[in-house]
Amino acid sequence: MGSLSGILQRPLIAAAAVGFASFSSDFSLILPSHKSKSNDSSSDLSTSTTKISLSKLANLSFISRIQVPVPTINFPIPNSHHCNSLYSSVASSPALLKLYHSAHLARAPNPAACKHDTSPSASVPEVSYRWHLPEPNALDVSGTSDCSSAKMRTVVVLLGWLGAKQKHLKRYADWYTSQGYHVITFTLPMADILKYQPGGKVEDHIDLLVTHLADWLEEEQAKNLLFHTFSNTGWLTYGVMLEKFQKHDPSVMGRIRGCVVDSAPVAAPDPQVWASGFSAAFLKKHSVATKGTTDASESGMDALVDSKEVVAPKPAVTEAALLLVLEKFFEVVLNLPTVNRRLSDVLGLLSARQPSCPQLYIYSSADRVIPAGSVESFIKQQRRAGHEVRACNFVSTPHVDHFRNDPKLYTSELTHFLEDCVLTCCKQSR
Fold first, then answer.
1. In this structure, what are the phi and psi dihedrals at residue 67, rounded to the nearest 5 degrees?
2. Which of 9, 53, 200, 395 has the most CB atoms less than 10 A away?
3. Distance CA 367, CA 394 (A)
């Protein structure tokens, strides 16, 4: 099969039209967007330092190979007069500024045609992946902290869900950078997914990210990776990346220190799951998948789905019709030989040949896209295979919305997982 472009587009467009018919009259209204409370705060630099080496930053090969505009970075200068000079020089260093960039996966544009608008009203172009540096106040520039050094040598790779954009992953990236980690946020354009063909543009995007990470790892043997995936799309992307690492440089597998799986997985090509995922991506906030349960309040580690009755919202008639159409559609598509074979390869790797690193699963009994029972079944399978696995059932929160609904529990689970399983030196240094 050469391409699924024609096969995919017409039925999906027709199905999407059914779903959007119910609110077409309101299409001109601007939907209110959720504004989360920012946890960012400026911290004074409490200790002075005598030196920091920036020459190594400028020599990183993966930085020099990415030809993109560099945004203007303005760091707050601490009040302490004693460290003003040093902090200012570090913040304005060309080497440090060079690290703050948006890495386009497509070919670098012609320099003459590339313009960077630094005005406040300028919109940031959507890119496939973006690199985020640790926040300056999270760095121990003295080099005396083993924990800080371990974090600086670790890149957290955030792999977005179906329909996710860079702005949606920013809250997660901000938390990790505030802890002292490097972060890469990766999303796949919806248009490319709808035109998917095995070995096509989607996998080209992933190839370039894998190459970028391999270049970064080559700089120093002590550098490591941590993956944080969202929904089945992010999880399958992780599987494709593992496949490419195993094929081109198996040693990278040993440098993956942990994997966080948010709202996944379903380790089989299930038409109902795929229909729910695409319906949620099409309808966004209008989808029942974005609604949690109303009376479940209990959550905790390794909680299993119980028999407690909860009030779950029902899909609207048009969404139910869209789900039916999509489910019938994916019953055909997922059984196409080329698609089924490709999915089976990736799912087989994720089920039986994952790295030996610890795993954390974050999910919910109220998830309308990924059944909690499927997640728990996979967790049991991984434990039987000898993997170190932790899990947290948020019980009442909707699909890929656990952080927004309960940020305290979410960040607590991440912190404990990272300190206990991934970077044990950080726990010892507390």
1. -100, 90
2. 395
3. 10
Distance of alpha carbon 2 from alpha carbon 199, whole angstroms:
10
Residue 259: strand pairing partners: 227, 359
SS3 content of the chain, % helix, strand, coil (to 5): 50, 10, 40
CB atoms within 10 A of CB 317: 9
What is the spatial order of strands in the sheet that 300-301 belongs to? Answer: 129-132, 182-186, 154-159, 224-230, 256-262, 359-363, 389-393, 300-301
The predicted-structure confidence for 100-158, as pLDDT tens digits, reads as follows 333 333 333 333 333 333 344 444 456 688 999 999 888 776 666 778 888 889 999 99
- Its pTM stands at 0.70
Q: How far apart are CA 348 and CA 33, in angstroms?
A: 39
Residue 239 pLDDT: 96
Instruction: Identify which of 210, 187, 195 has the alpha carbon closest to the alpha carbon of residue 126.
Output: 187
Q: Which residue has the higher pLDDT, 4 or 149?
A: 149
Cβ-count burial 296-305 (b if 16+ within 10 Å, e if not): beebeeebee
Of 300, 211, 225, the residue nearest 259 (C-alpha)? 225
Per the DSSP assignment, residues forming a β-bridge with 230 are 262
What does the DSSP assignment read for 244-309? HHHHH-GGGGGGEEEEEEES----S--HHHHHHHHHHHHHGGGSGGG---SS----EETPPP-S--
Query: For residue 19, what pLDDT band results from cuts at 50, 70 and 90?
Result: very low
Token representation of residue 287: 């989808």
DSSP letter for 101, please: B
Residue 312: strand pairing partners? none
Please compute Rg for the chain using Cα positions: 22
Return the bridge partners of 359, or none.
259, 389
| Residue 16 pLDDT > 70 | no
Give me the chain's average pLDDT, please.
Answer: 75
202-207 contacts at long range (C-beta below 8 A, 24 or more positions apart): 203/240, 204/105, 205/105, 205/128, 206/237, 206/240, 206/241, 206/244, 207/244
Angle between helices 201-218 and 231-248 (to 10 degrees): 60
Residue whose tokens read 């952080």: 403
Helices 231-248 and 337-352: crossing angle, nearest 10°? 80
Report the alpha-carbon distance of residue 166 to residue 130 in Å, rounded.
8
